Amino acid sequence: MPGLAGRMSTVIKSKISRLLDRAEDPGETLDYGYQKQVELLQNVKKGIADVVTSKKRLQMQSQKLEQQVVKLDTQARQALSQNREDLARTALERKSLLQTELQSLDQQVTELEGQQEKLTENEKKLRAKVEGFRTKKEVIKAQYSAAEAQVKISEAANGVGEEMADLGLALQRAEDKTEQMRARAGAVEELEAAGAFDDITQLGGGKDDIDRELAELTSGAQVDDELAKMKAELGSGGGDTPALESGKEGQ
Amino acid sequence: MIVRISGEGQFRLPDSDGERLNELDNRAVSAVEAGDETGFRELWQQMLALVENDGEALAEDELVESDVILPPRDVSFAEAQGEFTGEGLIPD
What we know:
The complex is a heterodimer. Chain A has helices at residues 7-22, 26-81, 85-143, 146-194, 197-203, 209-217, 220-238. By secondary structure, chain A is mainly alpha-helical. In chain A, helix 2 (26-81) runs antiparallel to helix 3, helix 2 (26-81) packs across helix 7 (220-238) and helix 3 (85-143) crosses helix 7. Chain B has helices at 17-33, 37-54, 77-83; strands at residues 2-5, 9-12, 56-57, 68-70. Chain B is globular, with a radius of gyration of 13 Å. The A-B interface holds A 1-6, 9, 13, 118, 122, 125, 128-129, 132-133, 136, 155-156, 158-160, 162, 166, 169-170, 173 and B 4, 6-7, 9, 25, 29, 60-66, 68-72, 83-91.
């Protein structure tokens, strides 16, 4: 079997030839073939709509993560103002992780948008082909003998079939990709949900899975910088000494 | 010959390109089998370039089958490991 010849098109082709064998009147075969194509075209449209829906869900997930980033930033500030640098650090580490995830998520959503545009474009192309088939079948019906018609029908039907198989494949890839992204975004969301501020207090200095994951994913230097900046901001309101050295109010 | 780039469309190429394309494909298969992603990427770009430079896009109302179907342009190495196997475009 040839390496590159898509397996999918082989499957579609054999389906079509079975279809063509079924009816003995070429005219009937043609009409049936056209009807099938129109049905498949509907499936393609539905498939594209599914991709769009998934993309929207991803965008919603991304918005949620953004809200979490804001929340964690606020929590870090609160923690610092209460002289809990350890908590502030944890919050900033989580924030840094989320920001990394957000970035890749947003980039993937953009990619998906490009794919969606292409799919829509290809669907239009396919519709033109199906329409071409409709015209062609009338010509074949009128001009060719039954035997000749069978050959012509096979050619045209296989041409359309291949186009459909190809678009089907593109749809499948887009859907798979969306699923992967959703799963990843969902995992991050769960991670974040588990790390809400109240829980950070309970985590304390202990090393759980989340902490370990954070340690792997976040650059400590970046968190240090942010922490220092935050301290400076908070400090500038209260005096020269950093807020965590000696809290005015205590706990 | 008619060549399809998956997800993009069909191109009409001079038959003489078949041999060149097959040669590139055979080498791509070897690269994939050897786990050589860099080598595969290079050959894959050459295959795409050959189709794009020598090929003429088919009109929208042409209903013909492809002689060769290439994977999508952005094929991943993992996907290639499923596609680029066996005897290549034209079995020897």
